Amino acid sequence: MRWRWGLGIPTISVALLVVAFVIGSPLYIKLKSGGSPLVRLAQVIVAAFKKRNAQLPKDLCYENGELDASISLHGKLLHTGQLR
Question: What pTM did the predictor assign?
Answer without folding.
Answer: 0.38
